[in-house]
Design goal:
There is one protein chain. Helices cover 14% and strands 33% of the residues. It is built from three helices and three strands, in the order H-H-E-H-E-E. It has one domain.
Amino acid sequence: MTDTRVFEPSEYKVDYQSWASRYKADWPSVIKDKTFIKLREVVVTYNLGKKLLDKTFMDSASFSVIGRNLWYWTKDDYYGDLDTYTLTQGDTGLQLPSQRSIGFNLNVSF
């Protein structure tokens, strides 16, 4: 297989401003309002009292409920999670927002 293409100079004249206004690096045209508020993590912990633990084999114990990505607000939700927006791709690259999760933690010391 050989390359048989031959270079020919273009006769079409384009001034820089016309070219740059259509180019992705034309930064004024790609500025996005990325105003958003996100509640990333909330942890609520309850430590069991010494009086309750005196009758058990445990020295200390606590119970926690953990919530992640509980709330998200943006002025323009067209792009989903703006944390995933990249200028190089010009969008979120089809990434989904972080998933909401709720879990618990039980911490016991002997």
